[in-house]
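// run 5 | inverse folding | seed 20
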């Protein structure tokens, strides 16, 4: 994976529409909800296990009818919670219906316990049990694992089931009503005001759960859109910077070559004419791929060979350029016009000052998943490495490599122990344009 090319890829290949951004946000939400549902089921398993242990501990103090109610509700609910692990949890994602089935089962279990207590003992006892608080816990967990529609369904179900219990108890004639809430707390009946307040609070809790779920969805979508826009803006800036760096090289070597031709016009018109012809061919080849950030190494070497032909006219037998390129790397992609400024530096600072001329070696080999490019000369070397100031060629090359490949690249410039200077570049070995490769990975 190319660490520095992601933003460039977004600008040049992947420009998501608002529909794609919303889809991406939805996918992110679904992944997080799937993870939350797995966690909630673990919590459910722990809670049901503790309730089962509590029911066993309280069993001697309860009537057989109440014990049967506890067993009849807790046993199947615990079994369903446990069976989910072998049935669904080996999958990459849980079934979508599970996030609504589980809270429906939980709410129905709470309602069944309250109804069972009413039948086994009395409606007043059933309505005073702490299990009613479980409704609120279930609703509080809805925004974590459900979408808005599912949250609304479960919230309405909780209100309807509890309201149905109150109506059924009231119509049965077995529910004792005590108008004073204070007296109802110590009496065998319940206060209509208390039950109305519970129903109202349950409705509020459901409304809050729905709002929280909807708010979370909108926040995620907005965050995804803003993040995408920010990445696209940064990518366009990176693209503009890369293009500026690359275009900077064309006038740089063009001016240097024209200066060399100018110096030969009066001294050797024939040589100047050959250099002009070579320059024309060089410009035709290099400008033909000017819009591309990466080209094959074979194409890069073709441009370089034309440049070398021009310089050999200038040096008149004092320059030898040797190419050592492994056959299996010629189809690899490299930054456009990456070798020419390095060879130009070698000629200008290494070979040029020597009356006898010299040799420049250009090497390209593969090392595992990396491509190694080396330009070395046997020129005058570097007199004072501590005060080195890199010119346009090296500075430009460093910036382009960093923008294209991030931390996956390396450029080293150093004097050679046997004399001369060497620049080595390491980049990821790849045959597919980096931007297209990242786009494909993002789509997967």
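// decoded
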């Amino acid at each position: 994976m190319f660490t520095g090319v992601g933003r460039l890829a977004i600008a040049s290949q992947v420009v998501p529409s608002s529909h794609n951004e919303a889809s991406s946000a939805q996918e992110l939400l679904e992944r997080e909800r799937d993870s939350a549902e797995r966690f909630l089921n673990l919590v459910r398993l722990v809670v049901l296990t503790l309730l089962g242990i509590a029911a066993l501990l309280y069993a001697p103090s309860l009537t057989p009818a109440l014990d049967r109610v506890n067993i009849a509700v807790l046993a199947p609910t615990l079994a369903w919670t446990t069976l989910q692990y072998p049935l669904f949890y080996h999958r990459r994602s849980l079934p979508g219906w599970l996030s609504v089935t589980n809270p429906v089962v939980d709410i129905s279990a709470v309602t069944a316990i309250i109804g069972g207590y009413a039948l086994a003992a009395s409606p007043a006892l059933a309505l005073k049990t702490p299990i009613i608080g479980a409704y609120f816990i279930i609703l509080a967990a809805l925004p974590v694992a459900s979408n808005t529609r599912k949250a609304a369904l479960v919230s309405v179900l909780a209100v309807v089931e509890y309201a149905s219990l109150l109506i059924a108890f009231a119509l049965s004639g077995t529910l004792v009503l005590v108008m004073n809430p204070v007296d109802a707390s110590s009496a065998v009946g319940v206060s209509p005001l208390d039950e109305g307040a519970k129903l109202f609070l349950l409705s509020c809790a459901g409304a809050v759960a729905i709002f929280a779920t909807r708010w979370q969805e909108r926040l995620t979508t907005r965050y995804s859109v803003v993040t995408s826009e920010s990445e696209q803006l940064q990518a366009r800036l990176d693209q503009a910077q890369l293009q500026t760096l690359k275009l900077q090289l064309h006038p740089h070597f063009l001016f240097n070559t024209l200066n060399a031709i100018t110096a030969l016009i009066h001294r050797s018109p024939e040589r100047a004419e050959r250099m002009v012809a070579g320059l024309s061919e060089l410009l035709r080849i290099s400008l033909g791929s000017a819009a591309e950030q990466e080209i094959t190494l074979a194409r890069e070497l073709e441009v370089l060979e034309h440049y070398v032909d021009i310089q050999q006219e200038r040096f008149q037998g004092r320059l030898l350029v040797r190419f050592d390129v492994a056959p299996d790397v010629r189809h690899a992609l490299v930054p456009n016009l990456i070798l020419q400024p390095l060879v130009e530096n070698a000629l200008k600072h290494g070979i040029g000052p020597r009356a006898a001329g010299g040799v420049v070696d250009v090497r390209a080999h593969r090392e595992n998943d990396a491509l190694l490019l080396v330009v070395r000369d046997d020129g005058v070397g570097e007199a004072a490495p501590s005060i080195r100031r890199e010119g346009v060629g090296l500075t430009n090359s460093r910036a382009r490599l960093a923008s294209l490949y991030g931390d996956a690249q390396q450029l080293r410039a150093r004097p050679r122990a046997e004399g001369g200077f060497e620049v080595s570049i390491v980049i990821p070995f790849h045959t597919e344009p980096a931007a297209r490769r990242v786009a494909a990975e993002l789509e997967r």
